[in-house]
Amino acid sequence: MNNIICACGHENPEGTVLCGNCGRPLTKEAKDLKLADMRYEGSARRSQTYNKSIIDKIWNFFSSVKIGVTIIIMILVAAAIGTILPQVLYVPASTEADIAAYYERVYGTFGKIYYELGLSDLYGSWWFQTLIGMLGISLIVASLDRFIPLYNSLKKQRTRRHESFMKRQRLFALGESVGQETLTKSEAKLKELRYDVKREDGALLAEKGRFSRWGPYVNHVGLIIFLFGVMLRALPGFYVDETMWIREGETRAIPEAPGYYLESKDFILETYDKEQADEVFGDAIERVGTIASNYQTDVVLYKKPESALPGQTENLEEVKKESIQVNKPLKFDGFAVYQMDFRLDELKTMHFVLSNKATGESLGDLAIDLVNPETTYDLGNGSSVKLLGYYPDFSGFENGEPQTKSPVPNNPAFLVRMTTPETPKGETSFVAIKQTVEPLGENAYKLEFQNVDTRDVSGLTIRKDKTLWILALGGLIFMIGVAQGSYFNHRRIWIHETKDGQFAVAAHTNKNWFAIKKELDQVTEAAQLPLYKDQQDSESQELKKDGEKSS
Amino acid sequence: MTLVSISGNLLFVAFICYLIATLFFGGAVKGSKPETSDSEKRWGRIGIIVTIVGFIANLAYFITRWIAAGHAPVSNLFEFTTAFGMMVVGAFILIYFIYRTPSLGLFALPIAIIIIGFASMFPRDINPLIPALKSYWLTVHVITAALGEAILAISAVAGLIYLLKNVDVTKRSKQSFWLEAVMFTLVLTLGFVASTTTFSVMDYEAKFSYVDKEQKDQEITYNTPPIFGMNEYKALTPGTMTPLAEMPPLVNAKKLTTVTWSLLFGVVLYGLIRLIIRKPIAAVLKPFAQKANSQLMDEIGYRAVSIGFPVFTLGALIFAMIWAQEAWSRFWGWDPKEVWALITWLFYAAFLHLRLSRGWHGEKSAWLAVIGFIIIMFNLIAVNLIIAGLHSYA
Ligand code: HEM
């Protein structure tokens, strides 16, 4: 390690640009600059110092802000491309083949290419996730690389800086002071402006808002915690995402929430009523048509007692009654249950009458529960109806066999054997809502469809997310850091008396030069300091000159 | 008068005040004296007073409409865009009291005026809230996000002034071309306002039936003469213009027609302006930016971003995530509107890093600020109108 020894005698680590003690520029480039580069106080950063091993190279790569910004821009562009067409998640198709077909059918060749390139699932792709990972690494490396040297050099600042440092500050003055006790007056004024003031034989350093310099690092830590939380979600057990359909009157186990049961009492759909809506909403309803005002499932949450056997669902203990609405999920034990979807008027029970075809005489009626049908319905008086087959979603015959599309009772059909005192051997019939087939020849009796009862079905989503608090913590830390860095500024003012009795004044801030100038104006006036110049703002100098000429 | 119509009138008052205030700010930067001289300060002072009066009327519009509707008036495109325009004025007032530069007002107010004018072209009735929007997070999230965007917009105004002052518009260069392109875009917005107003004054209506992409029969009403027809359209209103071309089911020909009319009106308007002034619009505006101090504009641009960025993060990302978790069971779903909020955020993060570590000050920084504003407007308008999603209002 080659330390650099400054003219003031201070030893600086290799890579230092401005002497940590007196502020003299140490490198050729720094000496050539009219204004000093004050980032990180000119201290030595690891990435500027080492470049030998492969580790150094990787470190340097990720610590570069150029790379960091490149990664940010790449994520930005990729994210934008993902919004050109809807992502797979929002496409009404589930199998790979259907999805591929959907993109081609709806969006043509462009859609096909978009799908084939994997852009339809862009945010889940390995390369997008890699970019996010690289962002995280870059954040960590760049922050460490800068924070440590910055912290060290701000901690051990010397009060008197060398003139070559002072004159390279953006706000700088050198000249006579007409007043007396210049430093004491400056100190008083600066203290009034809430600066911390340090004095050392003939030199003064006033500083405030140093903590704002940690803002970026605090906010990066917040981001890293957030990204860490997001990564955790990929591990099993941190994250539950289930859906359940529940019918009115039904009690069902909540998926992934062992021991918990939910009963749906009622599903409610409300719309705004044009008649009742005051004149305020009238126009909108007129224009749009019906507007829903509420989707709600009234539920009771139960818990199985500790002692209960597996599968046993009697003696459930009621936990709470609640109405789940959009924006008002049911919460319990870390879970949340959301109102997400519904189906209105699903068939519940079908009512039939068994009657004599010739006379029309009825032998009694029966109600078939379409979810849990019984095998035999005894009508008394020696008559009964037996279900030989049940086809909840009847879709037609195949090879003479009735088929069902799904287990949902959308179009129920039954194969029944009807027994009456007159026909003790029984007659077979196939009964659907609007159709009766008598496969084994003409019957004397028929099962006559009367009506149906319906009920609504609620689509609920069950979530448990153990990472939420990590994400919230990351967000909170980010906000603290970003407020700390944005709403406060680090300001420093150096004043010293030179050997020939003049005064040198310099000021620096990490942002908001306007405010530090105003403060420096006040100090200049109070202590009659020489007038400073903004060495970066040529225009205002010109303006001042113009003003002098015209006045 | 009902509360709703009072509210509408208040918005009109605000609109007029902003117009008048613009003239006063114009007075403050005209003439040969520096912006900071006494007589100029007087013009600037009247300008800011009129602006504040307008802003109070604007706030009163917002509050009365809130009371009338029973929910914060940020639930459709008209309401949201108007609120955004109002907050741009609010952000300008805030920044004005820090830096006291009339030139900022001369450019910020016209932009707010265009935004509010643009907003008024959308249906203005008060919607009852659908279940997904019934949450106080709607209020908190939208207002904070719009406020953040408005503060960020001020940085674009400062950037624009910087560019008008520092880009040599008499020379052909990339810079002068793009600067004029920004002016052209602003005129296009006026084209949209002009075409919509023209046809609504004419009470134009043409009804069509068509077949949508799911093969269902639908009906649609055009409020502009149909240049493009929907898929398999049939005219239901007799005596209206026959569309020049039929579009495939994927394309919303009605929106395409609206866009085309706006473009036509905008291009004609721009052509007329150029005919009258005989030089680029940027060249005409340049003298108005001449008095601004470049260094100060650069600083205001950065300051606005550093004030606006945390507010935007809080409103558009953090509050948005909290609400999404309550309403849709997930805090993030890669919905286009969410993604564009993220893109905006990443863009400004890149802006800050380029400035801080790569020394992108002055002109580069000014361009970035203008681009940032374009992204914000894209998210506000194009994503709502073109890219459908959960957030789509239209
Ligand atoms: C989306 C991700 C990021 C966000 C939101 C973010 C946010 C910020 C903010 C707000 C600042 C303060 C800026 C100012 O005060 O003007 C900052 C500073 C900084 N960021 Fe980031 N950052 C992100 C990613 C990165 C990455 C990937 C790097 C890696 C190269 C990085 C490196 C830095 C550095 C070096 C600073 C300056 C610190 C200083 O000078 O004190 N940031 N960041």
Automatic annotation (TrEMBL), chain A:
Membrane topology, record value: Multi-pass membrane protein
Gene Ontology biological process terms in this record: cytochrome complex assembly
Positions of region (Disordered): 531-551
GO cellular component, one term: membrane
Keyword set, alphabetical order: Cytochrome c-type biogenesis, Membrane, Transmembrane, Transmembrane helix
Pfam families: ResB
Basic and acidic residues: bias regions: 541-551
Domain ResB-like residue range list: 65-521
Compartment(s) where it occurs, according to its Swiss-Prot or TrEMBL record: Membrane
Highest taxon in the source lineage: Bacteria
InterPro entries registered for this protein in UniProt: Cyt_c_bgen_Ccs1/CcsB/ResB, ResB-like_domain
Regions crossing the membrane: 67-85, 126-148, 217-239, 468-488
Protein name: Cytochrome c biogenesis protein ResB
Organism this protein belongs to: Paenisporosarcina quisquiliarum
Lineage of the species this protein comes from: Bacteria, Bacillati, Bacillota, Bacilli, Bacillales
Automatic annotation (TrEMBL), chain B:
Domain of life: Bacteria
Gene Ontology biological process: cytochrome complex assembly
Entry GO MF terms: heme binding
Membrane topology: Multi-pass membrane protein
Location of this chain's protein in the cell: Membrane
Transmembrane segments: 6-25, 46-68, 80-99, 104-122, 142-164, 176-194, 259-277, 300-324, 339-356, 368-390
One GO CC annotation: plasma membrane
Domain annotation Cytochrome c assembly protein: ranges: 262-391
Pfam families linked: Cytochrom_C_asm
Keywords for this protein: Cytochrome c-type biogenesis, Membrane, Transmembrane, Transmembrane helix
Name the record gives this protein: C-type cytochrome biogenesis protein CcsB
Species of the source: Paenisporosarcina quisquiliarum
